[in-house]
Amino acid sequence: MSVSPYQQNRLAWLVVLLLFIGSVLNYVNRAVLGVLMPQIRRELVLTNTDYGLAVNAFLTLYMVFYVVGGRLADRLGCRRSFTLTIIFWSVANLLHAFARGLRSLCFFRALLGMGEGGYYPAAIRGAAEWFPVENRAKAVALLLCGLSVGALLTPPMVAWIAIHHGWRASFLATGALGFLLVPPWLMLHRRVKQIYGTADPAPAFRQEEKGALPEENLSLLEVLKRRKYWCLLMARALSDAAWSFFLFWMPGYFQEVRGFDLRMVGRWLWIPYFSADVGALGGAWVSSMLIQRGLGLNRSRKSVLIPSAALAALGGLVYFLPGPFLALAMASVALFGHLSWASNIHTVISEITPPKHLAVLYGITGAAGTLLGAASQPLIGRSVDLAGYAPAFIGVGVAYALALVLLLGAGKIERIRRIPPPSTPHPALRSAL
Fold first, then answer.
1. Which residues contact 156 (CB under 8 A, 6 or more apart)?
2. Residues 165-221 pLDDT 10s
3. What is 1-211's CATH topology?
4. Which residue among 92, 240, 278, 323 is least crowded, i.e. fewest CB within 10 A of its CB?
């Protein structure tokens, strides 16, 4: 059946819209425990150390299943991987309502990490499958906006449910939301099947694969040997670790150092995360516009990535600025830069890797970022206890500076290809040698 470009584009954006909602729910489910931890700690008689064990249970399995989920997405495709992961993490989140102590809480957190870790490789594969290169960063940016939208929604929503119905009801309600997303996802792909004859047509993805030369179908091991991939992996991992600082430590910093109370936190601290959303969409739009104008993939992406990393590095100055609102403004600039950077660096990973390994390689980069972010948390806590927040903010600035160096060290942004063997000399030349 012939499909018009308008119809294909409409279906692609519907797919990404549902993936965006999945990203929002993914973060909401992840963040419920942090919002409710004081109440849970009192009822289950847990210490702060116990809470740390529960967080580590989540992060460890999240990291592992970022890679496993990538392999699953490569084998099953976005449609089935999305369905499996969202059902799995929704059930895991529901089970938190039945926690009776540390062991059960850690077990349920580990299950949640398994489900959530497998989601983003499937989502990124979906963006790569449905969008050509000039629009792919916009799709990835929308997925990343789901994180900060989830960060905006979780505290008021979860607090309201807990106040009126108890903390266990918060897990039941937020877990149930995931099941509401599965029917429209399956209905959309039923419509896709009616149009294309298959539920996994992957229009843009298939076009790229058809145009690929046989020698470009590299093995996974061959890609893992390339400096380009490892430079971009470490660049993303460093920026992910810095982002985790802004997510988990910035609210406490503004309360402990800048004098914000909870009312001020609710009134003002949404601004940096809103700025991050604007950065994600703006960075994606600019790089896509440059590609459409013929600037080329490498120059278009780097024209956004380089200034974005520079803006994000300004986050290191937040601690040293006078007045809480000037610090808040600088944090907003830094988070704008970070998600502008992230919307493009995530896309670049999909653009340099062979299509058949896209999800698993994206999963490895995500696992590296999660590992570095998790490892940095106790170091941040120790440095805050001993020397305040200054070293942590300086570390944020250094992380983005190193990420920028690694980006430049990766060389040209282009698909990783097999290095051709040296050409065989002409027989006359061989005899002369």
1. 266
2. 988 999 999 999 999 999 998 888 787 777 666 656 555 445 544 444 444 566 777
3. Growth Hormone; Chain: A; (1.20.1250)
4. 323
